[in-house]
Amino acid sequence: MEKREVTFRIKRFNPKKDKEPYYQEFKVTVYKGMTVLEVLQTIKDTLDPTLAFRAFCRSAICGSCAVRVNGFPKLACKTQVFNELDKFQTDTLTIEPIGNMEVIRDLIVDWTPSIEKMKAMKPYLIPDPEVVPPTPDEESKVYPEELKKFDKFTDCILCTSCYSACPMVELDDNYGGPFPLARVYRFAVDPRDALKKERAKIGFAYDMWNCVRCQMCADVCPKHVGPVDGIMKLRGLSIEAGMKDNPGARHVMAFYKSLLESGMLNEVLLPLRSKGIKGILENLPIGIRMILKGKAHSPIMRPIAEHETLVKVMKAAMEVE
Fold this sequence. Notes:
- The chain has 321 residues and is α+β, with helices and mostly antiparallel strands.
- The chain folds into three domains: 3-108, Ubiquitin-like (UB roll) (Roll), CATH 3.10.20; 112-240, Fumarate Reductase Iron-sulfur Protein, Chain B, domain 2 (Orthogonal Bundle); 247-320, no CATH class.
- 41% of the residues lie in helices and 12% in strands.
- The chain has 14 helices and seven strands.
- The strands form two sheets. The chain has a five-stranded mixed beta sheet. Strands 6-7 form a two-stranded antiparallel sheet.
- It is globular and about 70 Å long.
- The N and C termini lie far apart (51 Å).
């Protein structure tokens, strides 16, 4: 069986005795097929019993073993060591706790703030009495076309990998975070739910418009849920529910209006339509520089050649959505 000598550089921290986190190296003989979790358990069993980490199911279901491997959030039980070595072309792997959460000890972080934030956002079904029968003797049916809208978001295992990689979580204490906001959307489109589009107000209260669509949450999700998709759809529901008097919604509508008018983005009118006079003043310096360099176009734009076809495609897409 193929084997390699691998150095594992693990970030350690025990707040009871350590002033600062530090890295400790362990050399382990790894056999092909071993996971990062198996290596951590080997280190704990044979080299250092004080190493602290979380693990439970070993089947990529509970989400408790999430750590960073060479800087990227991973489920330790799912991550093959040889795959990571080949990917990074190295014989050393750095294992650290996931980000955006306080470290309790070594690789264990405090999930409490993220979970409490999610709980406050009501991530559970509030039965609609007109849809859900009053007793369990009757069925509450969800048809395939209805399930398709939220099915993938039910795959979230609450590993918090997306939360740990989200730059907005780090910058905005009020931001709900990828997995909580995606769960809000999941129930907003559940036909059995009483709140439905009203859940968009919850998303707004937890700064869903601050998502920068960096796609990090989608990149690191071990279940390929793609929370950012749920956040974008929740934004759409908020506009449908009439929550249009905010910069985020106006920005989206300004994009849409530009495409309807000419088939191109009107960057000159975009600040005005998104933020009014304030938007013009904020963007005036860069606007002047663009004019001086000949890069600013006229606010009056002629429609592109295939404008009518584009408008048809856009409206058809909106109907399908």
